[in-house]
Amino acid sequence: MKDCAELDRALNELAASGAVEIREDGQWLAGLSSLHYELRQNGKILLVHLWSDERNLTRRILSVKEQSGDRIVFEVQRFGRAKPGRLEFLRTDLLRAAGRVTREQFRERFQRFPDSTVDSLIASADLEHSFSGVYVRGRMHEGSSEHALIAVSPSETSAVIEGILTFGILWLDWAGDMPTCCRRIACFCSGGH
Prior knowledge:
The structure is a single chain. This protein is an alpha+beta fold. It folds into two domains: about 5-90, Protein Yojf, Chain: A (Distorted Sandwich); about 100-190. The protein is built from four helices and eleven strands; from the N terminus they run αβββββββαβββααβ. It has helices at about 5-15, 100-110, 160, 165-175; strands spanning about 20-25, 25-30, 35-40, 45-50, 55-70, 70-75, 85-90, 115-120, 135-140, 145-150, 185-190. It has a seven-stranded antiparallel beta sheet, with helices on one face. Strands 8-9-10-11 form a four-stranded mixed beta sheet, with helices on both faces. β3 and β4 (about 45-50) form a beta hairpin. The radius of gyration is 18 Å and the shape is globular. The termini are far apart.
């Protein structure tokens, strides 16, 4: 793996070249301009630390999967997770669509449920399984009960909001590896404020 100083230089060059967004496992996290970042070497362990007033994220860098003038992709280890993930820094010359930004911000609201643990949360399209990117989909558990969840932002059109039940049924069927006694779906048509 490349050394800390070399990777830090590459990140600084990428940040100076234009607008950069950060994604973790395919999900948008933030624009690099809204975050502070640093790479730290701790013995043989290389860490990336990203922070702002709203978030604080530290990941162990296992390897550099890709590096070019407009993209740096790390294989990372997240604290408490056995499976490695991906942390991507991508140059974006075009502004992201306002609807996409709103959906990603709406998804962030569902990271915490009282008395429940959110296991996964997705707000991107999965055309292979007919899942629209307008709905936030995920899985959560409460004690021994596991639930599939789907949500739609109140800022979406009425047709999108009315379609949540159909997509909820598709999502529940796809999440069918949950035990039958625990298969439930929760549909949310508003995120509240």
